[in-house]
Write a structure and sequence with these properties.
Blueprint (H helix, E strand, L loop, with lengths): L1 H12 L2 H18 L15 H8 L25
Helix pairs in contact: 1-2
Length: about 80
């Protein structure tokens, strides 16, 4: 959704900055179509959506946006400050 908003907003602007914004918006669109979660490694998860669903123990067809929680692991919880 973010990618499509960036693309549409950038194209609507009709300027060089708008074209750059539209190109920037292609990143999230391509990542979503390839089932990649680019922010996954920041949270200690793999980048591939299939691997994330397997690690979380959810159905392969399940959305990753439903707030599923990962089972507690032996690793210390990552804190973002």
């Amino acid at each position: 959704m973010t990618g499509s908003c960036l693309v549409l907003g950038g194209l609507r602007a009709g300027t060089a900055k708008g074209a750059g914004l539209a190109l920037l918006g292609l990143g999230p669109l391509v990542a979503a179509s390839l089932d990649l979660v680019l922010m996954g490694p920041l949270f200690g998860l793999p980048m591939r959506g299939e691997d994330i669903r397997r690690e979380l123990g959810v159905n392969e067809e399940a959305s990753l946006l439903n707030g599923h929680r990962r089972a507690a692991s032996s690793r210390a919880a990552m804190l973002l400050h």
